[in-house]
Amino acid sequence: MYRLTRHIPKSGWRSCYDVGDGVSLGIADLSYLPPAEQLKAIAARADEAQRTLNLADGPLMRVILFHLGNSPGRLLIVIHHLAVDGISWRILLEDLSGAYKQLEIGKSIQLPAKTTSFKDWAIRLQDYARSQELHSQLDYWLDSMRFPIAPLPLDYAAVAQDNTVASSRIVSVYLSVEQTRTLLQDVPFAYNTQINDVLLTALVQTFTRWTGSYFLLIDLEGHGREDLFDDVDLSRTVGWFTSIFPLLLKLEDQDDLGEVIKSVKEQLRRIPNRGIDYGIWRYLSLDAIAHNKLQAFPQAEVSFNYLGQFDQTQLATLGWKYAQESSGSIHSPKGQRRHLLSVNGLVVEGRLKVEWQYSEHFHCWATVENLANEYIEALETIIAHCLSPEAGGYTPSDFPEVEFSQEALDELLAEIK
User: Fold this and answer.
1) Are the beta carbons of 368 and 172 closer than 8 angstroms?
2) Phi, psi (5° rounding) for residue 64?
């Protein structure tokens, strides 16, 4: 594995990777404990494993096998987030599954070839930061924050320093398996949408009802593995790739749900390179004037991230599945949260799960629970609408080779009908 070391020269922080020692397997025999005590022991050992990860000196990874007596064992794998992202976990679990199968039948381990290294990707981004292509996108980011942003309503008055990890709580809400299947497979046909178009339409509707503002500023997080270079393949590259960028959504024509969906879809399609350019401008560009202008943007109080589908196809073939026990806290309780509300969605066991994380120093449980439930209701309404006979339509981004306004496109389609 790799160990991340750090240096702090006069120019700031610098990271480098060097080959470290192998990963040891810890064994925890909890078979002598009753089930309730086993849960507590797993949670305690998982927290301890998370706390021992060390970004400077290692380790970056811990693995513990729990023996539970008559119950199936549990395998805990914790890796520092700066070493892996969600896609990396899929790659690693696929490799683990493949290696296990090969060893089980007496074969030597043969894994697929690696793809572009994380180091090479970082070097290419440095070069891209000086390119004319990046500079051509600057106007979008400077123009995107032209509207006044109202702060979120608060239940309690507090200062920013009170927004700690220790004060955070999570409200989780779900769609059913059937609703999730419909959302992923059937809903996109109505307006040629992607999953984020629908999830963010419901989000801006929910916040508009709460705040009374038709604008919602969020930090949107993407997977960060964008197709910027033809000769780069990141399909099997392990690392922490991400893109976090501000997005100002406007709720337009709120009385017509179809028009709302199309409007949000087009606002998302206008983002250059799925937002990765913003971070490159902020942190890699040498253009100090542009950097300062971007840094002066208002700070979003809401973040949103759809993490994708975490199915169990690879694990199921081994008779494994994701465990329900605690994997430990991934953040120090002393850490500062960046946002007042963090909304994260993922599909697990066929159901969309949406977590609303908040600080009890700023909001009460009932407020966030109401928001979370209204969000699910908004999604259900969108799903029902997209399945209805009157739903459907195209938007200008569906015809990238022709410059259409929505009005001109609607007129043309009406003539064709």
Assistant:
1) no
2) -135, 130
pLDDT digits (tens, 9 = 90+) for 316-361: 777 788 888 999 988 888 899 999 999 999 998 899 999 999 999 9
Distances (CA, A) of 330 to 90, 165, 318: 18, 10, 27
Q: 30 in a domain, yes or no?
A: yes
Residue 92 maps to a domain:
no
Same domain? For 237 and 140 the reply is yes
Cα→Cα distances 287→6, 11, 129, 243, 389, Å:
26, 17, 9, 20, 51
> Which SS3 state, helix, strand or coil, does residue 169 take?
strand
Whole-model pTM over 0.90: no
Question: For 93-120, what is the HEC assignment?
Answer: HHHHHHHHHHHHCCCCCCCCCCCCCHHH
Backbone angles phi, psi at 347, to 5 degrees: -105, 120
**Helices 177-185 and 365-386 meet at what angle, rounded to 10?**
50
Q: Which domain holds residue 18?
A: 2-83
- Give the CATH number, domain containing residue 78: 3.30.559.10
Are 324 and 195 contained in the same domain? Answer: yes
Q: How many residues does the chain have?
A: 417
Angle CA(57)–CA(60)–CA(61) in degrees, nearest 5?
Answer: 140
How many angstroms separate the CA atoms of 14 and 149, rounded? Answer: 35
